[in-house]
Amino acid sequence: MAKRDYYKVLDVARNASEADMKKAYRRLAMKFHPDRNPGDHEAEDKFKEAKEAYEVLSDAQKRAVYDQYGHAGVESSRNAASGAGAHAAEAFSDIFGDVFGDIFGGARRGGASQVYRGADLRYEIELDLAEAVFGRSVEVDVSKFVECDVCHGTGAAKGSAPVSCETCHGSGQVRLSQGFFTLQQTCPHCRGTGRVVRNPCDQCLGQGRVRRGKKLSVKIPAGVDSGDRVRLGGEGEAGRNGGPPGDLYVEVHVREHAIFERDGMHLSCDVPISFATASLGGSVEVPTLDGQVALKIPAETQSGRVFRLREKGVKSVRNHNRGDLFCRVVVETPVHLSGEQRALLRQFDETLRQDSHKHAPRQKSFLDGVKRFFSSEQP
């Protein structure tokens, strides 16, 4: 079977740079590597084809020969250019150290043992609206891993110390050589730390960390809302192998309020008013975060009208701006009327009916619209 053009195998242009070819080969190697496609002979053949193409095109001398003479030139010069094999092996080692590092354990190249940052923690608290609006300090009790105060994080008993891992010689990684390839993976013996505890600490059992409860005072700033988080740096889980601790995130949830609804910096509420106040006008007391204020109701106010009280909302947690309070008036229908009240109300209603277009313009407009609708439906 005739070999395919190496540039087409890697799907790169003939003037592609070394970086472009390396990137293309990494993509194909990741896709067709036998370890990711067990039993798939077609994928194995494509992997070998891509490997052969990259072996030639990644070497300047081989690439020049291939560009001039094609596959025949490469085959005839393969024995003479045997020294190029070391270059190819080094290139493959670099690529597979990057590509398959995560697949085979996630180890990083380098001589130093791995250091692990502690995990971040999340703590949820519930606040009343007033607490969220004005801020407060709260105490939280957090259970977390902290550094062992007996071994100071080493995991070794008093008077002893961890020793270098004999499997990885302290690097935290092991190398597996397979022909041209050198694969790296986390050392299974020390789990990437590079050290082994032979005489473990009695308190932490060699872990270097113990779980403890800790009380923390958290200052909740004024203006927080549900979903906001307060970060306490370094108050998360203790790190491993000398790594830094994580952070603690306190997430706020604001309880629903009996009167106010919140929308960011703004508040809204329903204000019930009597039929007489809506008709004749007047003043009603409205609750705000700063106390009661008088809201002036003009005569002939309709139910649902919204009045805006500026800067009576919530102060922003990010700046000094303050939202508004929106008061939606609701005309309340009287209930449990006495016989005398019913009679008076009927008399009053009769007086309104005598000149309904004047006293109830919205009702008249609605009825006129209904008449027009039904008359237009007639054939």
Gross geometry = elongated
What's the end-to-end separation, in Å?
82 Å
Largest sheet: 4 strands, mixed
SS summary, helix count: 10
Mean pLDDT: 81
How many beta strands in the DSSP annotation?
15
| Coarse structural class | alpha+beta
Series of H and E elements: HHHHHEHEEEEEEEEEEHEEEEHHH
Explained architecture:
A hairpin with a 2-residue loop joins strand 12 (282-288) and strand 13. The chain has ten helices and 15 strands. It has helices at residues 6-10, 18-32, 41-57, 60-77, 84-99, 129-134, 275-280, 339-353, 356-359, 361-377, and strands spanning 121-127, 136-147, 163-164, 173-178, 181-186, 195-196, 209-220, 229-232, 248-254, 261-263, 266-273, 282-288, 291-297, 306-309, 325-331. It folds into four domains: 6-99, Helix Hairpins (Orthogonal Bundle), CATH 1.10.287; 121-254, Chaperone, DNAj Protein, Chain A; 261-331, Urease metallochaperone UreE, N-terminal domain (HSP40/DNAj peptide-binding domain, Sandwich); 339-371, no CATH class. With 379 residues, it is of the alpha+beta class.
Main features:
379 residues; alpha+beta; Helix Hairpins; Chaperone, DNAj Protein, Chain A; HSP40/DNAj peptide-binding domain; 4 domains; 10 helices; elongated
Describe the structure concisely.
The protein is α+β, with helices and mostly antiparallel strands.
Question: Topology of this protein?
Answer:
Blueprint: H1 6-10, H2 18-32, H3 41-57, H4 60-77, H5 84-99, E1 121-127, H6 129-134, E2 136-147, E3 163-164, E4 173-178, E5 181-186, E6 195-196, E7 209-220, E8 229-232, E9 248-254, E10 261-263, E11 266-273, H7 275-280, E12 282-288, E13 291-297, E14 306-309, E15 325-331, H8 339-353, H9 356-359, H10 361-377
Parallel strand pairs: 1-9, 11-15
Antiparallel strand pairs: 2-7, 3-6, 4-5, 8-9, 10-11, 12-13, 14-15
Helix pairs in contact: 2-3
